Amino acid sequence: MTVPTVCVSNAVDTLRDFAVRADGVDELLSECWAQQDQALFWGPLPKMIITYEPIADLDWQRKFLELDDVVNLSPAGKTGSLFADALADPELMTAVAAYAGPGRRIRLIPHTTTADLWHFAEALRTGHGIAVELPESTPRQDLRDAFDTKTGLRDLAADLGMTDGPCRIPPGIHCAGREEIPAAVRDMLATGRPCIVKADRGEASIGLLIFRPGDDDIDQRLAASPFYGEDQVVVEEFVEGDIAFPSVEYMVPEHGTPHLCYTTDMLFEGATHLRGNVTARELRDEWWYKPLTEGGQRLAEEMQRRGYRGHFGIDAIARDGEVHMHDLNARRTGSTHVHEFGDQFIGPGYIGTHAVGNYDFYGLPSGLELGEVLRLLGQLVASPRHADRGVVPTELTDLHTGRLSCMFFAPSLTELHDLIAEARVALGLDL
Protein backbone atom coordinates (compact mmCIF):
# COMPACT_ATOMS: atom_id res chain seq x y z
CA MET A 1 0.00 0.00 0.00
CA THR A 2 1.35 3.43 -0.98
CA VAL A 3 1.90 5.75 1.97
CA PRO A 4 0.20 9.15 1.39
CA THR A 5 2.56 12.12 1.23
CA VAL A 6 1.99 15.34 3.18
CA CYS A 7 4.29 18.30 2.40
CA VAL A 8 4.52 21.08 4.99
CA SER A 9 5.98 24.19 3.34
CA ASN A 10 7.29 26.02 6.41
CA ALA A 11 10.01 28.04 4.66
CA VAL A 12 9.47 31.11 6.79
CA ASP A 13 9.80 29.39 10.19
CA THR A 14 13.59 29.53 10.51
CA LEU A 15 13.83 33.07 9.15
CA ARG A 16 11.14 34.79 11.22
CA ASP A 17 12.96 34.69 14.57
CA PHE A 18 15.93 36.42 12.95
CA ALA A 19 14.06 38.81 10.66
CA VAL A 20 11.81 40.20 13.42
CA ARG A 21 14.81 42.18 14.66
CA ALA A 22 14.33 44.59 11.76
CA ASP A 23 11.69 47.14 10.90
CA GLY A 24 9.59 46.14 7.91
CA VAL A 25 9.74 42.45 8.77
CA ASP A 26 6.67 41.65 6.67
CA GLU A 27 8.40 42.92 3.54
CA LEU A 28 11.52 40.91 4.37
CA LEU A 29 9.42 37.78 4.77
CA SER A 30 7.22 38.27 1.71
CA GLU A 31 9.38 36.12 -0.54
CA CYS A 32 9.17 33.26 1.94
CA TRP A 33 5.38 33.40 1.92
CA ALA A 34 5.51 32.87 -1.84
CA GLN A 35 8.26 30.25 -1.54
CA GLN A 36 5.60 27.99 -0.03
CA ASP A 37 4.37 27.35 -3.58
CA GLN A 38 7.56 25.42 -4.39
CA ALA A 39 6.03 22.43 -2.59
CA LEU A 40 3.96 21.80 -5.72
CA PHE A 41 7.06 20.09 -7.09
CA TRP A 42 8.13 18.17 -3.97
CA GLY A 43 7.88 14.44 -3.76
CA PRO A 44 5.44 12.09 -5.48
CA LEU A 45 1.82 12.48 -6.48
CA PRO A 46 -0.76 12.40 -5.04
CA LYS A 47 0.04 14.68 -2.11
CA MET A 48 -1.40 17.09 0.40
CA ILE A 49 0.39 20.44 0.77
CA ILE A 50 0.03 22.51 3.94
CA THR A 51 0.92 26.17 3.39
CA TYR A 52 0.64 29.40 5.39
CA GLU A 53 -1.79 30.80 2.84
CA PRO A 54 -3.75 29.05 0.08
CA ILE A 55 -1.57 28.70 -3.02
CA ALA A 56 -2.69 31.39 -5.46
CA ASP A 57 -4.05 30.36 -8.88
CA LEU A 58 -3.76 26.72 -7.90
CA ASP A 59 -6.59 25.70 -10.23
CA TRP A 60 -4.64 27.03 -13.23
CA GLN A 61 -1.44 25.33 -12.09
CA ARG A 62 -3.24 22.03 -11.54
CA LYS A 63 -4.69 22.14 -15.05
CA PHE A 64 -1.58 23.45 -16.83
CA LEU A 65 0.85 21.02 -15.17
CA GLU A 66 -1.65 18.16 -14.84
CA LEU A 67 -1.43 18.10 -11.06
CA ASP A 68 -4.93 16.84 -10.38
CA ASP A 69 -3.84 14.87 -7.31
CA VAL A 70 -2.80 17.90 -5.20
CA VAL A 71 -4.72 18.95 -2.11
CA ASN A 72 -3.85 22.29 -0.46
CA LEU A 73 -4.77 23.24 3.11
CA SER A 74 -3.87 26.25 5.26
CA PRO A 75 -4.40 26.75 9.01
CA ALA A 76 -6.66 29.44 10.40
CA GLY A 77 -3.80 31.12 12.32
CA LYS A 78 -0.46 32.45 11.11
CA THR A 79 2.02 32.92 13.95
CA GLY A 80 5.30 32.09 12.21
CA SER A 81 5.36 28.37 12.98
CA LEU A 82 3.35 26.45 10.43
CA PHE A 83 3.42 23.26 12.50
CA ALA A 84 2.17 25.08 15.60
CA ASP A 85 -0.56 26.78 13.56
CA ALA A 86 -1.62 23.43 12.11
CA LEU A 87 -1.73 21.92 15.61
CA ALA A 88 -4.01 24.74 16.74
CA ASP A 89 -6.49 24.07 13.90
CA PRO A 90 -8.64 20.99 14.77
CA GLU A 91 -10.28 20.90 11.34
CA LEU A 92 -6.92 20.81 9.58
CA MET A 93 -5.60 18.08 11.88
CA THR A 94 -8.73 16.02 11.23
CA ALA A 95 -8.25 16.48 7.47
CA VAL A 96 -4.62 15.30 7.69
CA ALA A 97 -5.70 12.24 9.67
CA ALA A 98 -8.40 11.45 7.09
CA TYR A 99 -5.83 11.81 4.28
CA ALA A 100 -3.78 9.02 5.87
CA GLY A 101 -6.50 6.62 4.77
CA PRO A 102 -6.98 3.07 6.00
CA GLY A 103 -3.25 2.50 6.43
CA ARG A 104 -3.21 5.15 9.20
CA ARG A 105 0.23 6.29 8.06
CA ILE A 106 1.65 9.34 6.24
CA ARG A 107 5.03 10.33 4.83
CA LEU A 108 5.80 13.87 6.02
CA ILE A 109 8.13 16.11 4.00
CA PRO A 110 8.86 19.54 5.55
CA HIS A 111 10.89 22.40 4.16
CA THR A 112 12.71 22.68 7.50
CA THR A 113 12.81 20.29 10.42
CA THR A 114 11.86 22.47 13.39
CA ALA A 115 11.15 21.63 17.02
CA ASP A 116 7.41 22.09 16.41
CA LEU A 117 7.47 19.32 13.79
CA TRP A 118 7.92 16.76 16.55
CA HIS A 119 4.91 18.09 18.48
CA PHE A 120 2.86 17.88 15.27
CA ALA A 121 3.92 14.28 14.59
CA GLU A 122 3.26 13.25 18.19
CA ALA A 123 -0.20 14.84 18.13
CA LEU A 124 -1.08 12.87 15.01
CA ARG A 125 0.11 9.68 16.70
CA THR A 126 -1.58 10.13 20.07
CA GLY A 127 -4.65 12.09 19.05
CA HIS A 128 -5.49 10.44 15.74
CA GLY A 129 -3.65 7.13 15.65
CA ILE A 130 -1.53 8.17 12.64
CA ALA A 131 2.06 6.92 12.25
CA VAL A 132 4.34 9.52 10.68
CA GLU A 133 7.32 8.63 8.50
CA LEU A 134 10.00 11.36 8.42
CA PRO A 135 12.58 10.36 5.78
CA GLU A 136 14.05 13.89 5.57
CA SER A 137 14.13 14.81 9.26
CA THR A 138 16.86 13.98 11.74
CA PRO A 139 15.59 13.31 15.26
CA ARG A 140 18.71 15.17 16.46
CA GLN A 141 17.11 18.61 16.40
CA ASP A 142 20.11 20.12 18.20
CA LEU A 143 22.43 18.76 15.51
CA ARG A 144 20.30 20.13 12.68
CA ASP A 145 20.11 23.54 14.32
CA ALA A 146 23.88 23.64 14.89
CA PHE A 147 24.72 22.71 11.29
CA ASP A 148 22.30 25.39 10.05
CA THR A 149 24.53 28.21 11.31
CA LYS A 150 27.55 30.05 9.94
CA THR A 151 29.78 28.79 12.74
CA GLY A 152 28.36 25.28 12.28
CA LEU A 153 29.69 25.07 8.74
CA ARG A 154 33.03 26.57 9.70
CA ASP A 155 33.49 24.21 12.67
CA LEU A 156 32.51 21.17 10.61
CA ALA A 157 34.87 22.10 7.78
CA ALA A 158 37.71 22.85 10.21
CA ASP A 159 37.26 19.44 11.84
CA LEU A 160 37.75 17.88 8.40
CA GLY A 161 40.84 19.99 7.65
CA MET A 162 39.01 22.07 5.04
CA THR A 163 40.53 25.41 6.01
CA ASP A 164 42.88 25.08 3.03
CA GLY A 165 42.95 23.31 -0.31
CA PRO A 166 40.77 23.44 -3.44
CA CYS A 167 37.50 23.35 -1.44
CA ARG A 168 37.64 25.29 1.79
CA ILE A 169 36.03 27.87 4.04
CA PRO A 170 37.24 31.48 3.72
CA PRO A 171 39.62 32.81 6.40
CA GLY A 172 37.51 34.14 9.22
CA ILE A 173 36.94 34.91 12.88
CA HIS A 174 34.15 33.84 15.25
CA CYS A 175 32.88 36.61 17.53
CA ALA A 176 30.99 35.75 20.71
CA GLY A 177 28.88 38.92 20.51
CA ARG A 178 28.50 42.45 19.18
CA GLU A 179 31.36 43.93 21.23
CA GLU A 180 33.96 41.71 19.51
CA ILE A 181 32.96 42.55 15.94
CA PRO A 182 34.73 45.92 15.37
CA ALA A 183 38.15 44.57 16.31
CA ALA A 184 37.63 41.47 14.17
CA VAL A 185 36.69 43.65 11.18
CA ARG A 186 39.75 45.87 11.63
CA ASP A 187 42.03 42.85 11.98
CA MET A 188 40.72 41.46 8.69
CA LEU A 189 40.96 44.78 6.86
CA ALA A 190 44.52 45.23 8.14
CA THR A 191 45.52 42.26 5.98
CA GLY A 192 44.33 44.18 2.91
CA ARG A 193 41.27 41.99 2.40
CA PRO A 194 37.60 43.03 2.38
CA CYS A 195 35.38 41.21 4.85
CA ILE A 196 31.74 40.35 5.37
CA VAL A 197 29.92 40.29 8.73
CA LYS A 198 27.31 37.54 9.09
CA ALA A 199 24.98 36.77 11.98
CA ASP A 200 25.26 33.13 12.97
CA ARG A 201 21.61 32.31 12.33
CA GLY A 202 21.12 34.73 9.44
CA GLU A 203 19.11 33.65 6.41
CA ALA A 204 18.37 34.93 2.89
CA SER A 205 21.28 37.44 2.89
CA ILE A 206 19.45 39.58 5.45
CA GLY A 207 21.64 41.85 7.58
CA LEU A 208 24.96 41.23 5.83
CA LEU A 209 27.54 44.01 6.08
CA ILE A 210 30.55 44.32 3.77
CA PHE A 211 33.65 46.33 4.71
CA ARG A 212 36.70 47.20 2.61
CA PRO A 213 40.16 48.51 3.52
CA GLY A 214 39.92 52.23 4.15
CA ASP A 215 36.36 52.22 5.48
CA ASP A 216 36.09 54.61 8.42
CA ASP A 217 32.45 53.99 9.39
CA ILE A 218 32.80 50.52 10.87
CA ASP A 219 31.44 51.33 14.34
CA GLN A 220 28.57 53.42 13.01
CA ARG A 221 27.34 50.80 10.55
CA LEU A 222 27.57 48.00 13.09
CA ALA A 223 25.75 50.04 15.71
CA ALA A 224 22.98 50.88 13.24
CA SER A 225 22.30 47.24 12.36
CA PRO A 226 19.51 45.50 14.29
CA PHE A 227 20.84 42.05 13.39
CA TYR A 228 23.81 41.80 15.75
CA GLY A 229 23.00 41.18 19.39
CA GLU A 230 24.42 38.64 21.79
CA ASP A 231 24.46 35.80 19.26
CA GLN A 232 27.65 34.61 17.63
CA VAL A 233 28.85 36.46 14.54
CA VAL A 234 31.25 35.42 11.79
CA VAL A 235 33.65 37.89 10.20
CA GLU A 236 35.26 36.32 7.16
CA GLU A 237 37.03 37.33 3.99
CA PHE A 238 34.66 38.68 1.35
CA VAL A 239 35.58 36.87 -1.86
CA GLU A 240 35.00 39.07 -4.91
CA GLY A 241 36.40 39.70 -8.37
CA ASP A 242 36.11 37.24 -11.24
CA ILE A 243 33.90 34.77 -9.41
CA ALA A 244 31.19 32.16 -9.89
CA PHE A 245 28.44 31.21 -7.43
CA PRO A 246 28.00 27.42 -7.52
CA SER A 247 25.83 25.47 -5.11
CA VAL A 248 25.30 21.78 -4.40
CA GLU A 249 22.61 19.87 -2.56
CA TYR A 250 22.93 16.44 -0.96
CA MET A 251 20.51 13.95 0.49
CA VAL A 252 21.73 12.17 3.62
CA PRO A 253 19.72 8.98 4.27
CA GLU A 254 19.48 7.23 7.59
CA HIS A 255 21.17 4.21 6.00
CA GLY A 256 23.21 4.02 2.82
CA THR A 257 25.61 6.48 1.22
CA PRO A 258 24.78 10.21 1.01
CA HIS A 259 24.36 11.31 -2.59
CA LEU A 260 24.56 14.47 -4.65
CA CYS A 261 21.10 15.60 -5.77
CA TYR A 262 22.14 18.36 -8.17
CA THR A 263 24.54 21.23 -8.80
CA THR A 264 23.41 24.76 -9.62
CA ASP A 265 24.81 28.03 -10.79
CA MET A 266 23.29 30.71 -8.58
CA LEU A 267 22.20 33.86 -10.40
CA PHE A 268 22.90 36.99 -8.37
CA GLU A 269 22.00 40.62 -8.84
CA GLY A 270 24.84 42.42 -7.10
CA ALA A 271 26.83 40.77 -4.33
CA THR A 272 24.04 39.46 -2.11
CA HIS A 273 20.70 39.42 -3.96
CA LEU A 274 19.93 35.93 -5.25
CA ARG A 275 17.52 35.98 -8.17
CA GLY A 276 17.59 32.43 -9.49
CA ASN A 277 19.30 29.08 -9.96
CA VAL A 278 20.06 26.94 -13.00
CA THR A 279 21.15 23.32 -13.27
CA ALA A 280 22.48 21.73 -16.46
CA ARG A 281 24.87 19.06 -17.69
CA GLU A 282 27.26 21.84 -18.82
CA LEU A 283 28.03 22.66 -15.18
CA ARG A 284 29.92 19.37 -14.91
CA ASP A 285 32.56 20.85 -17.21
CA GLU A 286 33.22 23.86 -14.97
CA TRP A 287 36.60 23.84 -13.18
CA TRP A 288 34.91 24.18 -9.78
CA TYR A 289 32.62 21.15 -10.22
CA LYS A 290 35.01 18.43 -9.02
CA PRO A 291 36.43 20.20 -5.94
CA LEU A 292 32.99 21.37 -4.81
CA THR A 293 31.22 18.03 -5.23
CA GLU A 294 34.10 16.13 -3.63
CA GLY A 295 34.20 18.58 -0.73
CA GLY A 296 30.43 18.43 -0.34
CA GLN A 297 30.54 14.64 -0.25
CA ARG A 298 33.07 14.79 2.61
CA LEU A 299 30.74 17.03 4.58
CA ALA A 300 27.73 14.81 3.82
CA GLU A 301 29.45 11.66 5.05
CA GLU A 302 30.64 13.35 8.24
CA MET A 303 27.19 14.80 8.92
CA GLN A 304 25.70 11.34 8.52
CA ARG A 305 28.31 9.89 10.87
CA ARG A 306 27.27 12.43 13.52
CA GLY A 307 23.58 11.53 13.16
CA TYR A 308 22.16 13.93 10.57
CA ARG A 309 19.71 12.90 7.89
CA GLY A 310 17.82 14.87 5.28
CA HIS A 311 18.65 17.47 2.66
CA PHE A 312 21.37 20.07 2.98
CA GLY A 313 22.89 22.56 0.57
CA ILE A 314 26.26 24.29 0.33
CA ASP A 315 26.53 27.74 -1.26
CA ALA A 316 29.99 28.63 -2.49
CA ILE A 317 32.07 31.25 -4.28
CA ALA A 318 34.62 30.01 -6.83
CA ARG A 319 37.66 32.10 -7.72
CA ASP A 320 41.22 31.48 -8.94
CA GLY A 321 41.10 27.70 -8.65
CA GLU A 322 39.62 27.68 -5.13
CA VAL A 323 36.07 27.01 -4.00
CA HIS A 324 35.10 28.89 -0.84
CA MET A 325 32.13 27.40 1.04
CA HIS A 326 30.27 30.20 2.81
CA ASP A 327 26.88 28.81 3.82
CA LEU A 328 25.31 25.48 4.81
CA ASN A 329 21.53 25.15 4.78
CA ALA A 330 20.46 22.06 6.73
CA ARG A 331 17.05 21.76 5.07
CA ARG A 332 15.48 21.87 1.66
CA THR A 333 16.81 24.93 -0.12
CA GLY A 334 15.46 27.58 -2.47
CA SER A 335 16.45 25.41 -5.44
CA THR A 336 15.47 21.90 -4.34
CA HIS A 337 12.29 22.31 -6.34
CA VAL A 338 14.25 23.16 -9.51
CA HIS A 339 15.75 19.68 -9.53
CA GLU A 340 12.45 18.05 -8.60
CA PHE A 341 10.62 20.02 -11.30
CA GLY A 342 12.99 18.54 -13.88
CA ASP A 343 12.78 15.08 -12.36
CA GLN A 344 8.99 15.08 -12.18
CA PHE A 345 8.03 16.72 -15.47
CA ILE A 346 10.91 15.85 -17.82
CA GLY A 347 12.14 12.63 -16.23
CA PRO A 348 14.77 11.24 -13.86
CA GLY A 349 17.45 11.62 -16.54
CA TYR A 350 16.51 15.21 -17.40
CA ILE A 351 20.02 16.52 -16.74
CA GLY A 352 21.24 14.62 -19.83
CA THR A 353 18.85 16.44 -22.15
CA HIS A 354 17.78 19.71 -20.52
CA ALA A 355 18.81 22.71 -18.51
CA VAL A 356 16.29 23.72 -15.83
CA GLY A 357 16.15 26.81 -13.65
CA ASN A 358 14.09 29.39 -11.83
CA TYR A 359 14.26 33.18 -11.85
CA ASP A 360 12.53 35.86 -9.77
CA PHE A 361 11.46 39.04 -11.58
CA TYR A 362 10.94 42.22 -9.56
CA GLY A 363 9.49 45.60 -10.43
CA LEU A 364 6.28 44.48 -12.08
CA PRO A 365 3.12 46.51 -11.39
CA SER A 366 1.51 45.84 -8.02
CA GLY A 367 -1.88 44.20 -8.29
CA LEU A 368 -0.76 42.18 -11.32
CA GLU A 369 -2.87 39.13 -12.10
CA LEU A 370 -1.98 35.83 -13.74
CA GLY A 371 -4.07 36.51 -16.84
CA GLU A 372 -1.95 39.55 -17.67
CA VAL A 373 1.28 37.61 -17.06
CA LEU A 374 0.14 34.90 -19.47
CA ARG A 375 -0.74 37.55 -22.06
CA LEU A 376 2.67 39.23 -21.78
CA LEU A 377 4.65 36.00 -21.94
CA GLY A 378 2.51 34.63 -24.75
CA GLN A 379 3.99 31.65 -26.57
CA LEU A 380 6.94 31.48 -24.17
CA VAL A 381 4.62 29.75 -21.70
CA ALA A 382 4.75 25.99 -22.19
CA SER A 383 4.49 22.83 -20.13
CA PRO A 384 7.51 20.50 -19.98
CA ARG A 385 5.05 17.66 -20.44
CA HIS A 386 4.48 18.82 -24.03
CA ALA A 387 7.44 21.01 -25.09
CA ASP A 388 11.25 21.04 -25.02
CA ARG A 389 11.54 24.74 -24.16
CA GLY A 390 9.33 27.02 -22.14
CA VAL A 391 8.41 29.21 -19.17
CA VAL A 392 6.11 28.21 -16.31
CA PRO A 393 4.89 30.99 -13.99
CA THR A 394 5.12 29.76 -10.38
CA GLU A 395 5.09 31.08 -6.79
CA LEU A 396 2.03 33.11 -7.70
CA THR A 397 1.07 33.81 -4.09
CA ASP A 398 3.28 36.92 -4.19
CA LEU A 399 2.35 38.08 -7.69
CA HIS A 400 0.16 40.92 -6.42
CA THR A 401 3.25 42.62 -4.94
CA GLY A 402 4.96 42.89 -8.33
CA ARG A 403 7.22 39.85 -7.95
CA LEU A 404 6.96 36.94 -10.36
CA SER A 405 8.92 33.71 -10.16
CA CYS A 406 9.11 31.41 -13.17
CA MET A 407 10.51 27.98 -13.94
CA PHE A 408 12.50 27.68 -17.19
CA PHE A 409 13.49 24.64 -19.21
CA ALA A 410 15.43 24.34 -22.45
CA PRO A 411 17.70 21.85 -24.26
CA SER A 412 20.90 23.68 -23.25
CA LEU A 413 22.23 26.14 -20.70
CA THR A 414 22.75 28.82 -23.36
CA GLU A 415 19.15 28.47 -24.54
CA LEU A 416 17.95 28.65 -20.95
CA HIS A 417 19.70 31.97 -20.35
CA ASP A 418 18.31 33.25 -23.66
CA LEU A 419 14.84 32.24 -22.52
CA ILE A 420 15.20 34.15 -19.25
CA ALA A 421 16.25 37.24 -21.24
CA GLU A 422 13.27 36.83 -23.59
CA ALA A 423 10.89 36.61 -20.64
CA ARG A 424 12.40 39.73 -19.13
CA VAL A 425 11.80 41.69 -22.33
CA ALA A 426 8.28 40.29 -22.69
CA LEU A 427 7.45 41.43 -19.14
CA GLY A 428 8.62 44.95 -19.99
CA LEU A 429 11.56 44.97 -17.59
CA ASP A 430 14.81 46.78 -18.39
CA LEU A 431 17.70 44.60 -19.52
TrEMBL record:
The keyword Nucleotide-binding applies. Residues 154-359 form the ATP-grasp domain. PROSITE patterns: ATP_GRASP. InterPro entries: ATP-grasp, ATP-grasp_PylC-type. Keywords: ATP-binding, Nucleotide-binding. This is ATP-grasp domain-containing protein. It comes from Streptomyces blastmyceticus.
